[in-house]
Amino acid sequence: MLSQTKPFLSHPFDDDKLKEECGVFGVIGVQDAANFVALGLHALQHRGQEAGGIVAYDAEHGFNSARRFGYVRDNFTKASLMETLPGSNSIGHVRYSTSGSKGQTAIRDVQPFFGEFSLGGCAIAHNGNLTNAESLRKELISRGSIFQSSSDSECIIHLIARSYQSTLPERLKDALRRVEGAFSVIAQTRTKLIGVRDALGVRPLVLGKLADGWVLSSETCALDIIGAEFIREVEPGEMIIASANGIESSYPFEKAKPRPCIFEHVYFSRPDSILGGQSVYETRRRIGVELAKEAPVEADLVCPVPDSGTPAAIGFSQESGIPYAMGIIRNQYMGRTFIEPTEQIRNMGVRLKLNVNRALIKGKRVILVDDSVVRGTTSRKIKEMILDAGAAEVHFRIASPPTAWPCFYGVDTPQREKLLAATMSEEEMRHHLEVASLKFVTLDGLYRACGVETGRDKASPAYCDACFSGEYPVKPVDQIENGFLMKAAE
Amino acid sequence: MLSQTKPFLSHPFDDDKLKEECGVFGVIGVQDAANFVALGLHALQHRGQEAGGIVAYDAEHGFNSARRFGYVRDNFTKASLMETLPGSNSIGHVRYSTSGSKGQTAIRDVQPFFGEFSLGGCAIAHNGNLTNAESLRKELISRGSIFQSSSDSECIIHLIARSYQSTLPERLKDALRRVEGAFSVIAQTRTKLIGVRDALGVRPLVLGKLADGWVLSSETCALDIIGAEFIREVEPGEMIIASANGIESSYPFEKAKPRPCIFEHVYFSRPDSILGGQSVYETRRRIGVELAKEAPVEADLVCPVPDSGTPAAIGFSQESGIPYAMGIIRNQYMGRTFIEPTEQIRNMGVRLKLNVNRALIKGKRVILVDDSVVRGTTSRKIKEMILDAGAAEVHFRIASPPTAWPCFYGVDTPQREKLLAATMSEEEMRHHLEVASLKFVTLDGLYRACGVETGRDKASPAYCDACFSGEYPVKPVDQIENGFLMKAAE
Amino acid sequence: MLSQTKPFLSHPFDDDKLKEECGVFGVIGVQDAANFVALGLHALQHRGQEAGGIVAYDAEHGFNSARRFGYVRDNFTKASLMETLPGSNSIGHVRYSTSGSKGQTAIRDVQPFFGEFSLGGCAIAHNGNLTNAESLRKELISRGSIFQSSSDSECIIHLIARSYQSTLPERLKDALRRVEGAFSVIAQTRTKLIGVRDALGVRPLVLGKLADGWVLSSETCALDIIGAEFIREVEPGEMIIASANGIESSYPFEKAKPRPCIFEHVYFSRPDSILGGQSVYETRRRIGVELAKEAPVEADLVCPVPDSGTPAAIGFSQESGIPYAMGIIRNQYMGRTFIEPTEQIRNMGVRLKLNVNRALIKGKRVILVDDSVVRGTTSRKIKEMILDAGAAEVHFRIASPPTAWPCFYGVDTPQREKLLAATMSEEEMRHHLEVASLKFVTLDGLYRACGVETGRDKASPAYCDACFSGEYPVKPVDQIENGFLMKAAE
Amino acid sequence: MLSQTKPFLSHPFDDDKLKEECGVFGVIGVQDAANFVALGLHALQHRGQEAGGIVAYDAEHGFNSARRFGYVRDNFTKASLMETLPGSNSIGHVRYSTSGSKGQTAIRDVQPFFGEFSLGGCAIAHNGNLTNAESLRKELISRGSIFQSSSDSECIIHLIARSYQSTLPERLKDALRRVEGAFSVIAQTRTKLIGVRDALGVRPLVLGKLADGWVLSSETCALDIIGAEFIREVEPGEMIIASANGIESSYPFEKAKPRPCIFEHVYFSRPDSILGGQSVYETRRRIGVELAKEAPVEADLVCPVPDSGTPAAIGFSQESGIPYAMGIIRNQYMGRTFIEPTEQIRNMGVRLKLNVNRALIKGKRVILVDDSVVRGTTSRKIKEMILDAGAAEVHFRIASPPTAWPCFYGVDTPQREKLLAATMSEEEMRHHLEVASLKFVTLDGLYRACGVETGRDKASPAYCDACFSGEYPVKPVDQIENGFLMKAAE
C-alpha cells in the first residue's frame, strides 16, 4: 500500500484514551467559505489531531483542495494556502487515524475525498466507520475501480461513480444505502452542501445558519467560533441539502430507533457543545453528582485529572461537600516528545504534561476524578505522582462505566485484550492500580446523568453503549471475520 | 541595529496581560545536562514564549550554543540539535522580548550571552532588567567594546571582559556591582554553575539537587519536571557557586531589605510553584477568599476567566457559597492567527481562544474572576460574549489591585497611558467595561493572601508592588531620562 | 480540477527551448533498487526538471512511493526518504509538465501512477503523449472511473483496471492497444519490470544489465552512472519483461516502420548517450560539419551558445578552420530568479546565466552556433550581449532546421503562432534577430549527420521530424478537434 | 567555541582542488543596493560556496544584515529576505570555510562582520588571510574584547573599536596597519564604501561604476552581471573611499613590490574576468599553448577535464593540431551526495558529476588537460573512467606547475603531506597515477602565458607563486609556530 513518512505528534496520554477519529465541517453561501471551514475545523480539533483537509469550489477555479498533516492552526492559517481555496462552498475534515494503518497515514488518506464524475465533481468528508468496507472494496476493485487511499471512506466515492442515478444527491443516497456502520457524511457538489446521518445517528451532525448561508458541523461549539446560529441537529437517517434554494430534507434509509453514541457525552464532544438537546458540560457535572451518590468516600480534596475530568470533579465536590481543588496542573505548552535524559527519571512523559501541586496535596486524602480508564497506564502514573508528592490516600472515581469492548463505529480503541476492564473486575483493577479505592459510575447512573431518569432500558437502550455493554447495534461483519472480536465471541 | 525577520506567534490576549520577560535554568554535574535544561525551560515557557537558547560545555567540544525563535518543545526536542550540545554543565533562557525592540527580536538578542575571555569562556542568562543599561552601554562602546545585541543584559558580559579580577566568579561580582535594577542571573564557566540575585531579590531564583548535580531555576515547577529536589531559594543578594566541590555561598552586594515582586504571586509564576515559602496556587485561592469578603455580590455562578483566574474563582466560590462553574471554555489548540473571514464576525480573536458555555450561562447572574486588568480590552470582549450568550448580569472580580504603573524590573508593561487604571477610577472602569459591578482586591487584601496578616506596611512594604503603588524600590534612571515616567513625575 | 501551489524554478531560457516532458528509469533484481533509480533519474534530469517520483516494491512492505517537486538531487538523496522505499524492484520518473496545466502541476500529476488491482499492484511511468487521451478519459469517467490527476498517462492505469486479461502484462498490452500517440512506458508489478515502446518508437528506451538484475532507461547515460552494461535498445513495438526468470520479449502491436524522434539527436538526449546506435555527441559534431559546408562565412571565431551548441560549434570550427573559442561563459550556479534591482538593467535574466568573454570578443567577427531557434527571444538577447561587448559582426548558425510545427508526442512546444519559423522566412528571421547572417542546417544535412548518407527520404522518412516538416506520423485526433493545429490545417 | 549544525554541500571533487576562501562585493549610491550585491555575490559564487552574508545601511532602518549557509541563489533571491536589507549602501561576502574549523562553520563565522562604535556602525568583508591573527586575538581578548566568531577577520573589527582615530576610515587604516598577511577588504560606514588591498596585492579587488554609484568587487565578471562599468583595479596598498563626494584614493601602507596570486590566473578567477589587465580565459588558453610546446605527445584527441581544463585544452589542441573533443561530459544538475547503493559501484562520487563519452573515446589515444593536481585522487578516478571506456592511452597535461606548498593567504590547501607533488617527483606521480605520460607546465611557461615573456625572474618574481615555489612573500608567523610548515622547515 502506498504510504509516506510524516511528522507525528505524540502525547503521553495518547495511548490511554479512546480517540474520536474525525470531525467534519461545511459552509455554503458565504464568500471565502474555506476560511470559515478552517475556523470550524480548529474548533473541532479535539476530534482529530493528525491531519486535516479542506475542499472549496468556485465557478471560476473549480474544485481545489489542500490536505496537511498537523494542526489546523499550523496549516490553514497561511494566506498563501487559503488563497488557493476560493469559493463560497467548502467542506473540511480533521482526522485521527484509520484502524488499518499502524500509526502512519499517507497524505492520500486525508479527507475530504474527491471524484470528478460525468455529472461534475463531488467531495465527501466522513465521520464514522463502515463495517462492510472491506467487502465493498474487494468488489469495487474487481470491477475496475482504483483506490487511492487505505481509507474505508473512499468506497463511498467509488459507489457514487458507479451509480446510475442522474443527480449527485441521488447517487450519494444510492451509495450510502450500500454501506453499513456509522456515518455522518458531509458532501459537496458545485451548487450544494449535503449532510447525511446513518439511521441510528451514531455520530453527531448539526445544522447552523450564517448570514445567508448554511453550515454543517460535527458539534455546536464550531458554530459558536464563527458566530453561526445553531438551528437543529440533522436527524438520524436524514439527508439535508443546502443550496441557494434553502434547505431540503429527506429520509433515504429504512427507519430505525436512534442509538447515538453515549461516549460523545462522556469524553469526545467539547463541554461547550450541545448534544441531543443537552449541555455536554452539565451532563458531565451530573455524572460527578451520580458518582458522589453511588460511591461516596471520606477525603480532604476532590481533584480532577485535567482537563477532561474537571466537570465531573466539580459535580462530585458539590454533591459531597468535599472541597474542589486543582491538585494537578497541566502544562499548556505541551507538544512533541522531548529527549528523556536518563533512566533515573521515570514517567517523564506524564510529567511533561502534568505536574502535581505538591504544597496542596501533601498529607491529604485525595479523590481523583477522571473521565475513563482504557489501559490504565496513565492512571497508574498519576497515582504515583500524587503519592510521591506526599498524599495520604488516593481514591479514583471514574465518570464512565468500565470500557470493556472495542468500538467499530469510528473510534480508535485498542485491541480488546489491552482494555483493562476486559480482563479484570473492578476490585482487580483497584488492586492493579494500587489505590485506596476505585469506583466507576454505573451504566444506569450514566443514563440518568444523560437525562434518562429511569436509567438504561435494557430491552431498547436510548444510546449506543457497546464499548461498555458489548451490545453492538450494527453487526460488525468484517471485524468478526477478521477476529477482532475473538474474545467477545467466546 | 542589526535585526532580522522572524515568525511571531500572537495570541489574542497578548496585548492585555503583563508579560514576564524571562525564565532561566541551569544544570551542572549530570550527563547531557542540556536535555535537562530543555525540560526545565519547557516548564518555564510561561515566562517567555518568543525565543529560547541553551549553552552547554564539555571538555572535548568546548562551549556550544543554540538559539531559536518559538517554543522550546518545537526546537529543543530534536535529537539532531540536542546532540550539538554535549556536556554536564548547561544553562538556558526563555524570553519574551526586550523593551527596546518593537515586536521584532533578532536572534542575536536571544540569551544566553557568551564571551571567550583569557580566563576561559563564560555564558550568562539574565531574568530582570537593568535600569542603568543605557548609560553603561554608551560608556563601554566608547572604550572599544563591540555589542552584538540590542539587549541590556549584554552589558554584563562586557563588564566581565573588562574586569581585572583573576577568576570568573570575582569578575561576575565586579560586573554586577556596576549594574542597577533587577536581576536573577545564571552564569556558567567551564567548571562552575553560578546563580545570583540582586539585593532586593525582585525576580525569583531557586536551588535544586538532581542526583549528584545541582540545578538553578526561576521557579520550583521546573525542578519537578526533571525530578529534582527543591533545596531552597537563592537569597536576595546571594551568589551561589555550584561545582564538583559542592555549593559555595557569598553575599557580594550591599545588604538591603528584600522586595520580591508581588506580581509573581498574582500572575507570573505557575500555580504549582512554591514562591517565598508559599504555594502560589494557595495564595491565589486566598486572594479569591479575600475578594469574596471585601466585595461580595449576589449571583448564581462564579466563573473563572481561564486559566489564570481559576484558583481565585475557586476561593471566591468557597468563601461565598456561590457555585463554581466553567462558564468559559478554552480551546486547547490555540495557536497562530487565523484569517478572519469577514467583517460580520467581530471578536474572532477572543473566540479562537475562548467559547462561552451557552447552555450553562443563559439567564444566570455571573461573577467573572480574572487575575488582573491591564488595558481592559479583553475584559470588554469577554463581557460581551457572556451577555451575548444570555447571561442576566455580569460582575467582575479582579484578583489584583488596579495596575496603574509600568514595571522597569523585567516585565513588559504598556506605556502608562494605556493602563486603564492609570486614567480611571474603579467606577469609571466599571462604566467603561459596562458591567453590573467591578471590584479589585485591595493592596492590603493581597498582602494578607500572601501571608502578611497585617496587610501592607506602608513604611516598609514586604514586596515590590510598584505596578500597583507607583513606589519604585530602585530609581529607574534611564527611564526617567527617556520620559517613560512622564505622568508619574507629575 | 484539484491543484495546489508548488515552488517553481524558472530559468531565463526556459521559454525559448523545446522541452522533453519525461525521463523514465527502472531497476529489478538488485537490493535497494530505489537508490539506483534515484541515480538514474539524476542522470536523466535534463529530460524533466519540474518533479520526480519513485515507486518501490518489497514483499514485506508492499508498494511504497514518493513524489516531489524539484530536482532529484534535492529530494531523493535523503536517507529518511530513501528508507521509505525498500525493495529490489523500483521504477521512477522525472517530468517537465503537462500540456494541460499552465505552469502549475499538482503533486498528484507526478508519476509513477499506481493502481491496486485484484491481481495485485501495478505502477507505470510514461514518456510520451497520448493523442487520444481526452476521448479515453471521457469514456472511462462515464463508466465510473475516478481520475486523480490531470495527466493523460493516468488513462493507462484505468484501462489496466478494466481489462479482463488474467495477468498484469496482458492487461498492460490490452491497455496500450487502446491508446494512440507516442509512448515509452515502464511498468512494475510485484515480480516484474516491464518496458514497452509504441510501434513507431518515437521516444527512446534502452535495456541494461546490472549484476544479476536488469535496468530500463530512457537513455544510456543513465546506465553509465550506476555502472550498468548497455545491452540494447527496446525495439519499436516491443514489450520486454524482466524478472527473476530473465528477459522475455514480445511484439504486441501491429508492425509499423519506425519513426524515432530526430530532435532527440538535436537537443533532448545527453551528448554522452548512444541513440539508435550512434553517439549523440558525434551526430551533433557532424551537424556542425554539415553547417560549415552548407553555410560557410568568413569570421574570426566560432563560439557555441553554451552548453547545447558546443559539439556543433566544434564541428563547425574543424570543418571551417576558424578557431573555436568560449565567447560566452555560463554561470554554473544558476538557479532561482533574483530580484532584478532596477529598470536600468535590461536582460538580467540572460546575464544571470551567461556572461560574454569581453576581452576575447572585442572587435571580432563571431559565428554563434546554437542548437535551435524556438521563439527567438534568447537569440536576440545573446546577439545584443555580444555586440555590447564590442563584436564586429554576429553570424548565427543553427544546428537544426527551422522549428515550425508543434510536437504532440511528448514535447512541450509553444503554440504554433509563437514559433518564429512558423511565421517568418529565414531572411525575415535574420532581419528580426538583426544579425549579419542566419543559417539553419537543412533537413537533408541533418539526416546526413544522423547517418542517413542520402539525406531525407521524402516518401518514407527514417525519423519523426514533424516539428520541422509538419508531417505527423500519428494523426493527433484530440488536438485537431481542439484547434491546436488550426494554422496547420490551412 | 560556539558552533552549530548546518547543511553541508559536498562535491566529489571538493577535496581535490585548492579552494579560494572568499569573494567580496559592495555597492554605494544606487537604490536597493543589496539586490545588486546579491547579484554580484552570485557571480562570485565560485570563490566560496559554503555561506554568504549581506549588510545594508539605510538612514531610516540603520544597519541590517542577513547571513545564510548555502548558495546565494537559494537565499538572497527571496523578496521576504531582501526587503529586510533596505538602503543604497551595501556590502556582501561569500565564503568557503576557515582553516580552523573542520568542515563545520558557525553562522557567526559568516561575514560581513559588524561593529557599533561611538562613531557609528561599520561592517567589513575580508578576502584573504591574516598570518598574525592568532597573536592579535590573544592580545585583544586579554584587553577585554569579546570575539563572536572563530574567524581571523574579526580581529579587524576589534582593532577598529580600539583605535583612537576620530573617523572610521582612519580607524580602519590603523587596524590594517596592525595585521599581516593578505587582505582585500571592503568596509562600509553609514556614508562610505571603502576598499583596501594589502601592499602586495595578493588578492584581487576592482572598482566599477554603476549609474551614479560605485562598485567594489573581487572580480570583473561580477561587474558584468549588474551592467557596471569596469573602471580599474584597486592598486596594491591602496585605499579607495567611495561616497556621495565621489572617489578618494590613498596609500596607507609602506610601499612594496606587488606580488598578486598567480593561482587566480590558473584556477580561482572566472575565465570571463579581466585580471591584472589580462583576459583570464586567454591566459589559460596560452598555458595550453605553452604545454603543447613544452610537452608534445602523439595522440588522437585532446579532451579537457571539465570545466576548468577547457581553455588550456583548446590552446593545446590549437598548438598541437590534435582535435579538441568533449571526452568527458559534466552533469549540470550536480548537487548533494546521493546514497551510494552498493559496494559494487566504485567511484560513484565522480560518476555523479562526470560521465565519459564512451562512443568517442573507445580505442583512442587521449590527452587529458586539467588545471592542477592537488592530491591526485580525482586524476586517478578520471583516468580509470577513461580506460574503462576503452581508451588506448591516457596522457595527462596539467596547466600549472606541481602544487607542492600550502597557501597561507586565503586559500584552503591540504596539509603539505597530502599534496602529491610535495612527496613525489613528476615521474613518481606518473607512476602513481598509472598513465602513459604526465607533464606539468613549467613555472617559466606559466609566467610566459601570464604575459611575462622572459619567464619567472627568480630574484624578484612578479607574482606570489608560493604554492609552486615555497617562496612566501610574507612570513607566516602563526603557522610556523603551529608546525603547519614542519616539512618545509626541513
TrEMBL record, chains A, B, C, D:
InterPro entries: GATase_2_dom, Ntn_hydrolases_N, PRTase-like, PRTase_dom, PurF, PurF_N
Cofactor(s) recorded in Swiss-Prot or TrEMBL: Mg(2+); [4Fe-4S] cluster
Catalytic activity: 5-phospho-beta-D-ribosylamine + L-glutamate + diphosphate = 5-phospho-alpha-D-ribose 1-diphosphate + L-glutamine + H2O
Record: active site: C22
Transmembrane regions listed in the UniProt entry: none
GO terms of molecular function: 4 iron, 4 sulfur cluster binding; amidophosphoribosyltransferase activity; magnesium ion binding
Residues noted as binding [4Fe-4S] cluster in the record, renumbered to the chain: C261, C407, C464, C467
Keywords: 4Fe-4S, Glutamine amidotransferase, Glycosyltransferase, Iron, Iron-sulfur, Magnesium, Metal-binding, Purine biosynthesis, Transferase
Comment on bound cofactor: Binds 1 Mg(2+) ion per subunit. Binds 1 [4Fe-4S] cluster per subunit.
Function: Catalyzes the formation of phosphoribosylamine from phosphoribosylpyrophosphate (PRPP) and glutamine.
Name of the protein: Amidophosphoribosyltransferase
Organism of derivation: Neptunicoccus cionae
